[in-house]
Amino acid sequence: MIEDYLVLSVILFCIGILGVISRRNVFTVLMSIELMLNAANLAFVAFARLNETMDGQILAMMVIAVAAAEAALGLAVIILLHRQKGRLDSNVFSLLKG
Amino acid sequence: MYIDTLFSIFALTAVAGSLGLVLFRHPMRSALCLAVTMISLAGIYALLSAKLIFLLQLIVYAGAVTALIVFIIMFLNLREKDLPEENERFTYFIGGAVVLIPVAWFMIKVMKSIPEVKNSIVGNGFGSIKEVGQMLFTNWLVPFEIISLLLLVTLIGAVVLAGIRRESND
Questions:
Q1: Which residues does chain A have within 8 Å of residue B119's beta carbon, measured at their own beta carbons?
Q2: What ipTM was assigned to the predicted interfaces of this complex?
Protein backbone atom coordinates (compact mmCIF):
# COMPACT_ATOMS: atom_id res chain seq x y z
CA MET A 1 0.00 0.00 0.00
CA ILE A 2 2.64 2.54 1.07
CA GLU A 3 5.05 1.64 -1.70
CA ASP A 4 2.47 2.56 -4.35
CA TYR A 5 2.58 6.12 -3.03
CA LEU A 6 6.39 6.08 -3.09
CA VAL A 7 6.43 4.75 -6.67
CA LEU A 8 4.05 7.55 -7.68
CA SER A 9 6.43 10.01 -6.00
CA VAL A 10 9.40 8.64 -7.97
CA ILE A 11 7.44 8.84 -11.25
CA LEU A 12 6.37 12.45 -10.63
CA PHE A 13 9.92 13.44 -9.67
CA CYS A 14 11.36 11.90 -12.85
CA ILE A 15 8.74 13.67 -15.00
CA GLY A 16 9.76 16.93 -13.27
CA ILE A 17 13.43 16.30 -14.11
CA LEU A 18 12.43 15.58 -17.73
CA GLY A 19 10.59 18.90 -17.85
CA VAL A 20 13.60 20.79 -16.54
CA ILE A 21 16.05 19.25 -19.01
CA SER A 22 13.88 19.11 -22.14
CA ARG A 23 12.13 22.50 -22.12
CA ARG A 24 13.49 25.98 -22.80
CA ASN A 25 10.42 27.95 -21.73
CA VAL A 26 11.25 29.43 -18.31
CA PHE A 27 7.63 29.12 -17.12
CA THR A 28 7.58 25.39 -17.81
CA VAL A 29 10.95 24.95 -16.08
CA LEU A 30 9.63 26.75 -12.98
CA MET A 31 6.47 24.65 -12.92
CA SER A 32 8.51 21.45 -13.32
CA ILE A 33 10.51 22.46 -10.24
CA GLU A 34 7.22 22.91 -8.37
CA LEU A 35 6.23 19.43 -9.51
CA MET A 36 9.49 17.98 -8.14
CA LEU A 37 8.89 19.69 -4.78
CA ASN A 38 5.41 18.16 -4.74
CA ALA A 39 6.84 14.70 -5.39
CA ALA A 40 9.21 15.15 -2.42
CA ASN A 41 6.20 16.21 -0.32
CA LEU A 42 4.36 13.06 -1.30
CA ALA A 43 7.30 10.94 -0.14
CA PHE A 44 7.41 12.84 3.18
CA VAL A 45 3.70 12.31 3.83
CA ALA A 46 3.83 8.65 2.80
CA PHE A 47 6.71 7.96 5.18
CA ALA A 48 4.87 9.84 7.93
CA ARG A 49 1.92 7.50 7.38
CA LEU A 50 4.24 4.48 7.38
CA ASN A 51 5.94 5.39 10.66
CA GLU A 52 2.75 6.81 12.20
CA THR A 53 4.51 9.98 13.32
CA MET A 54 3.67 13.47 12.13
CA ASP A 55 7.23 14.78 11.63
CA GLY A 56 7.03 14.08 7.91
CA GLN A 57 3.88 16.15 7.63
CA ILE A 58 5.59 19.08 9.34
CA LEU A 59 8.50 18.78 6.90
CA ALA A 60 5.97 18.78 4.06
CA MET A 61 4.53 22.01 5.46
CA MET A 62 8.00 23.56 5.44
CA VAL A 63 8.52 22.46 1.83
CA ILE A 64 5.19 24.08 0.92
CA ALA A 65 6.36 27.37 2.48
CA VAL A 66 9.69 27.20 0.64
CA ALA A 67 7.89 26.43 -2.65
CA ALA A 68 5.56 29.40 -2.20
CA ALA A 69 8.54 31.71 -1.58
CA GLU A 70 10.37 30.24 -4.58
CA ALA A 71 7.35 30.75 -6.86
CA ALA A 72 6.94 34.38 -5.77
CA LEU A 73 10.60 35.31 -6.30
CA GLY A 74 10.97 33.19 -9.45
CA LEU A 75 7.99 34.85 -11.11
CA ALA A 76 9.33 38.30 -10.16
CA VAL A 77 12.66 37.42 -11.79
CA ILE A 78 10.84 36.09 -14.89
CA ILE A 79 8.95 39.38 -15.24
CA LEU A 80 12.19 41.36 -14.96
CA LEU A 81 13.93 39.16 -17.53
CA HIS A 82 10.95 39.49 -19.86
CA ARG A 83 11.13 43.29 -19.53
CA GLN A 84 14.86 43.18 -20.22
CA LYS A 85 14.96 40.85 -23.24
CA GLY A 86 11.35 40.42 -24.36
CA ARG A 87 11.85 36.66 -24.59
CA LEU A 88 11.03 33.62 -22.51
CA ASP A 89 13.78 31.39 -23.88
CA SER A 90 16.14 30.17 -21.18
CA ASN A 91 19.01 30.13 -23.71
CA VAL A 92 18.74 33.92 -24.09
CA PHE A 93 19.39 34.45 -20.39
CA SER A 94 22.91 32.98 -20.35
CA LEU A 95 24.41 36.21 -19.07
CA LEU A 96 27.16 34.68 -16.96
CA LYS A 97 29.30 33.21 -19.76
CA GLY A 98 32.80 34.46 -18.95
CA MET B 1 -11.32 -1.71 -1.16
CA TYR B 2 -12.54 1.60 -2.49
CA ILE B 3 -9.32 3.27 -1.25
CA ASP B 4 -7.33 1.41 -3.92
CA THR B 5 -9.76 2.58 -6.62
CA LEU B 6 -9.52 6.16 -5.39
CA PHE B 7 -5.73 5.93 -5.29
CA SER B 8 -5.62 4.61 -8.87
CA ILE B 9 -7.85 7.45 -10.08
CA PHE B 10 -5.83 10.13 -8.31
CA ALA B 11 -2.48 8.64 -9.38
CA LEU B 12 -3.56 8.42 -13.03
CA THR B 13 -4.78 12.03 -13.01
CA ALA B 14 -1.58 13.20 -11.32
CA VAL B 15 0.68 11.45 -13.85
CA ALA B 16 -1.44 12.61 -16.79
CA GLY B 17 -1.38 16.18 -15.50
CA SER B 18 2.38 16.16 -15.03
CA LEU B 19 2.92 14.72 -18.52
CA GLY B 20 0.70 17.47 -19.92
CA LEU B 21 2.70 20.03 -17.94
CA VAL B 22 5.92 18.85 -19.56
CA LEU B 23 4.62 18.28 -23.09
CA PHE B 24 2.26 21.20 -23.83
CA ARG B 25 3.91 24.07 -25.69
CA HIS B 26 1.96 27.02 -24.32
CA PRO B 27 2.66 27.75 -20.61
CA MET B 28 -1.03 28.48 -19.93
CA ARG B 29 -1.99 24.88 -20.74
CA SER B 30 0.97 23.70 -18.66
CA ALA B 31 -0.26 25.78 -15.71
CA LEU B 32 -3.74 24.27 -15.93
CA CYS B 33 -2.21 20.79 -16.07
CA LEU B 34 -0.18 21.72 -12.97
CA ALA B 35 -3.45 22.65 -11.20
CA VAL B 36 -4.89 19.22 -12.09
CA THR B 37 -1.79 17.53 -10.64
CA MET B 38 -1.96 19.60 -7.45
CA ILE B 39 -5.62 18.78 -6.84
CA SER B 40 -5.16 15.05 -7.39
CA LEU B 41 -2.13 15.10 -5.06
CA ALA B 42 -4.37 16.76 -2.46
CA GLY B 43 -6.72 13.79 -2.80
CA ILE B 44 -3.78 11.43 -2.28
CA TYR B 45 -2.81 13.30 0.90
CA ALA B 46 -6.37 12.83 2.13
CA LEU B 47 -6.03 9.09 1.47
CA LEU B 48 -2.86 9.13 3.60
CA SER B 49 -4.95 10.76 6.41
CA ALA B 50 -2.85 13.93 6.39
CA LYS B 51 -5.72 16.33 6.91
CA LEU B 52 -3.77 19.54 7.44
CA ILE B 53 -1.49 18.87 4.47
CA PHE B 54 -4.57 18.19 2.34
CA LEU B 55 -5.97 21.61 3.27
CA LEU B 56 -2.63 23.36 2.76
CA GLN B 57 -2.14 21.69 -0.62
CA LEU B 58 -5.53 22.92 -1.79
CA ILE B 59 -5.15 26.44 -0.38
CA VAL B 60 -1.47 27.19 -0.98
CA TYR B 61 -0.63 25.14 -4.08
CA ALA B 62 -3.86 24.74 -6.03
CA GLY B 63 -5.09 28.12 -4.83
CA ALA B 64 -2.23 30.56 -4.42
CA VAL B 65 0.78 29.30 -6.40
CA THR B 66 -1.16 28.16 -9.48
CA ALA B 67 -3.28 31.31 -9.47
CA LEU B 68 -0.10 33.41 -9.23
CA ILE B 69 1.50 31.56 -12.16
CA VAL B 70 -1.67 31.88 -14.29
CA PHE B 71 -1.89 35.57 -13.38
CA ILE B 72 1.70 36.23 -14.45
CA ILE B 73 1.26 34.31 -17.73
CA MET B 74 -1.86 36.35 -18.54
CA PHE B 75 -0.08 39.54 -17.42
CA LEU B 76 2.74 38.95 -19.92
CA ASN B 77 0.09 38.34 -22.65
CA LEU B 78 2.04 35.62 -24.44
CA ARG B 79 1.29 34.91 -28.09
CA GLU B 80 2.49 32.06 -30.27
CA LYS B 81 5.43 34.07 -31.64
CA ASP B 82 6.67 35.03 -28.15
CA LEU B 83 7.24 31.41 -27.20
CA PRO B 84 10.73 29.96 -27.69
CA GLU B 85 11.15 27.54 -30.57
CA GLU B 86 11.41 24.08 -29.07
CA ASN B 87 11.56 21.77 -32.05
CA GLU B 88 14.09 19.52 -30.35
CA ARG B 89 12.18 19.06 -27.11
CA PHE B 90 10.88 15.57 -27.94
CA THR B 91 14.43 14.45 -28.67
CA TYR B 92 15.57 15.78 -25.32
CA PHE B 93 12.53 14.24 -23.66
CA ILE B 94 13.22 10.78 -25.06
CA GLY B 95 16.96 11.07 -24.33
CA GLY B 96 16.27 12.13 -20.74
CA ALA B 97 13.78 9.28 -20.35
CA VAL B 98 16.40 6.80 -21.53
CA VAL B 99 18.79 8.11 -18.87
CA LEU B 100 16.16 8.37 -16.11
CA ILE B 101 14.34 5.05 -16.51
CA PRO B 102 17.20 2.95 -14.99
CA VAL B 103 17.48 5.44 -12.11
CA ALA B 104 13.73 5.31 -11.52
CA TRP B 105 13.76 1.51 -11.77
CA PHE B 106 16.51 1.34 -9.14
CA MET B 107 14.64 3.71 -6.84
CA ILE B 108 11.43 1.70 -7.24
CA LYS B 109 13.37 -1.46 -6.35
CA VAL B 110 14.59 0.28 -3.17
CA MET B 111 11.04 1.40 -2.35
CA LYS B 112 9.73 -2.14 -2.79
CA SER B 113 12.27 -3.44 -0.26
CA ILE B 114 10.86 -1.27 2.55
CA PRO B 115 9.22 -3.47 5.17
CA GLU B 116 5.61 -2.45 5.46
CA VAL B 117 2.93 -2.63 8.09
CA LYS B 118 -0.22 -3.87 6.39
CA ASN B 119 -3.37 -1.82 6.89
CA SER B 120 -2.24 -0.12 10.07
CA ILE B 121 -4.92 2.10 11.57
CA VAL B 122 -3.89 5.49 12.90
CA GLY B 123 -5.63 7.38 15.67
CA ASN B 124 -8.40 9.86 15.10
CA GLY B 125 -6.19 12.88 15.64
CA PHE B 126 -3.43 11.79 13.23
CA GLY B 127 -2.63 14.68 10.92
CA SER B 128 -5.32 16.96 12.31
CA ILE B 129 -4.66 20.65 12.82
CA LYS B 130 -4.46 20.42 16.62
CA GLU B 131 -1.98 17.54 16.77
CA VAL B 132 0.28 18.84 14.00
CA GLY B 133 0.16 22.34 15.49
CA GLN B 134 1.17 21.09 18.92
CA MET B 135 4.10 19.21 17.42
CA LEU B 136 5.04 22.21 15.27
CA PHE B 137 5.22 24.57 18.23
CA THR B 138 7.09 22.19 20.56
CA ASN B 139 9.54 19.93 18.71
CA TRP B 140 9.83 21.95 15.51
CA LEU B 141 9.86 25.50 16.86
CA VAL B 142 13.34 26.51 15.61
CA PRO B 143 12.77 25.30 12.00
CA PHE B 144 9.42 27.11 12.08
CA GLU B 145 11.14 30.36 13.05
CA ILE B 146 13.76 29.84 10.33
CA ILE B 147 10.95 29.40 7.78
CA SER B 148 9.39 32.67 8.94
CA LEU B 149 12.79 34.33 8.48
CA LEU B 150 12.95 32.89 4.94
CA LEU B 151 9.53 34.35 4.15
CA LEU B 152 10.71 37.74 5.45
CA VAL B 153 13.78 37.55 3.19
CA THR B 154 11.49 36.69 0.26
CA LEU B 155 9.33 39.71 1.03
CA ILE B 156 12.35 42.02 1.13
CA GLY B 157 13.69 40.45 -2.07
CA ALA B 158 10.41 41.05 -3.90
CA VAL B 159 10.38 44.68 -2.75
CA VAL B 160 13.99 45.15 -3.88
CA LEU B 161 13.27 43.63 -7.31
CA ALA B 162 10.24 45.89 -7.79
CA GLY B 163 12.31 48.91 -6.67
CA ILE B 164 15.04 48.27 -9.22
CA ARG B 165 12.50 48.34 -12.06
CA ARG B 166 11.05 51.67 -10.95
CA GLU B 167 14.50 53.32 -10.83
CA SER B 168 15.38 52.11 -14.33
CA ASN B 169 12.15 53.57 -15.70
CA ASP B 170 12.84 57.03 -14.30
A1: 1
A2: 0.90
